[in-house]
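Ticket opened by: R.M.
Priority: normal
Category: complex prediction / small molecule

The reporter submitted a protein together with heme C and asked that the result be attached to this ticket for the collaborator who will pick it up next week. Submitted input follows.
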Amino acid sequence: MKAAKHVAAIAAGAMISVALASTVSAGDYKADPKTFATNYEHITIAPEWTGEDKLQLKLPKNFRRWVFIGAPLTPHGLNGGRANFPEFHNVYVQPEAFQHYRDHGVWPEGTIMFKELQLVDSHGMPGEQADGSRFEPSGRGYFPGKVNGADAAVKDSTRFPESKNWGYFNFGHHEEPYMAVAEAKPIAACAACHIANADEDMVYMKLYRPLVTPLKRTDN
Ligand code: HEC
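Result attached by the on-call engineer:
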């Protein structure tokens, strides 16, 4: 009897760890429809809204555990010494949104593109070059340093129909901690440029396509 209970406990433990693993791995991610947010059919890690009009976005928790899809870089050294965003732009998306995009080619309602800025680590380091690059054993380049701010874009056709279904948020352009809540930005400040220039559904997909595409020689 005691042994049987023990076996049952191990089995339960195994099930829990499988369930936990499935919330963070994106490879063959299978979302559980029972846990979808009521207002987002395909998302469990849903955007959290607050404020009187429910248009303010809470800083998503644990976004560094989401799927990382790319890191565009526009350093000072290549922008006349004064880039607006000289950091790596590390972009993360919820695992379920990632899987949904792979399966259907569209970002589902509730998708959060989370962009965390990460400074180039060069200032005052020995060997720093005039363009902000420096050397590592791998060669001369731009290397990641301190994090320095966070932006988000959220797909929600109910809240943001006038900016092609996406709302834009800034949680501060500085080191952590970031703001806990951010207001939706005016269209002119953010969405307008995405409307004019992004290549697919308001997102600069060509920059993320390589990491969103399944590997060629395996089944994921
Ligand atoms: C002048 C054009 C322009 C403006 C204005 C702009 N963006 Fe972007 N945004 C881009 C470009 C280009 C990329 C992709 C390349 C990069 O990150 O450098 C991007 C990428 C992003 C991403 C990653 C997902 C994606 O769509 O590629 C987020 C999130 C984002 N921007 C949020 C914002 C927010 C929030 C604002 C306003 C505070 C804003 N953007 C204003 C041009 C713009």
